[in-house]
Amino acid sequence: SQKIEQNSEALNIQEGKTATLTCNYTNYSPAYLQWYRQDPGRGPVFLLLIRENEKEKRKERLKVTFDTTLKQSLFHITASQPADSATYLCALPPDQTGANNLFFGTGTRLTVIP
Amino acid sequence: NAGVTQTPKFQVLKTGQSMTLQCAQDMNHNSMYWYRQDPGMGLRLIYYSASEGTTDKGEVPNGYNVSRLNKREFSLRLESAAPSQTSVYFCASCRDRVVSEQYFGPGTRLTVT
Fold this sequence. Notes:
The structure holds two protein chains of two kinds. Chain A contains no helices and eleven strands. By secondary structure, chain A is mainly β. Chain B is mainly beta. Chain B is 0% helix and 51% strand. In chain B, strands 2, 4, 5, 6, 9, 10 and 11 form a seven-stranded mixed sheet that branches. In chain B, strands 1-3-8-7 form a four-stranded antiparallel sheet, with no helix packed on it. The N and C termini of chain B lie far apart (36 Å). Chain A binds chain B through residues 4, 31-32, 34, 41-46, 49, 51, 89, 91, 93, 97-107, and chain B through 4, 31, 33, 35, 40-45, 48, 50, 56, 58-59, 90, 92, 94, 96-107.
């Protein structure tokens, strides 16, 4: 069956350092992958979408890579700030059709320590 | 624009009671979704509506029904609530049914005793 694993439940990092979060998947061949941010008590907020033919995507201090051979996506936050503290979720569509009925990982809770 | 709105924010039900969770979006999106989020389980798709007039089951549809009332509104009904349905429920919408980011509402925290 399909499975999504985010490398750790929690990650603590010092302010100014680069945070790297991992999303691994099995039994998928997704057309794309998405990353969301979720703050306590709130709904997820979309951050980035990367397609299977894109190796890397950037948005301000965020960078996402997508390796379809390794079945892995890495999410980087450079020059991390306490305001980046949140839970980060990766999400995949079920197949190559691109349909948006997403499967989500359980998330990694990032804490940036001042 | 309000984005995606959900009502109510909180609800406590007794086992066997029924209720409807309401969701509306003002972004003229075609597709809408209902998820539940439980500790350690992540977000799981209950039902979705790829376009007005269509609905499909997601990963965990048992015990729920949905109605896509019009393009703006997508409701989730629990006919006979069970303690296993205690969860936080999120509604989401997106512009297209493929390759499109989802916009989430603030959630409804439901407790079934």
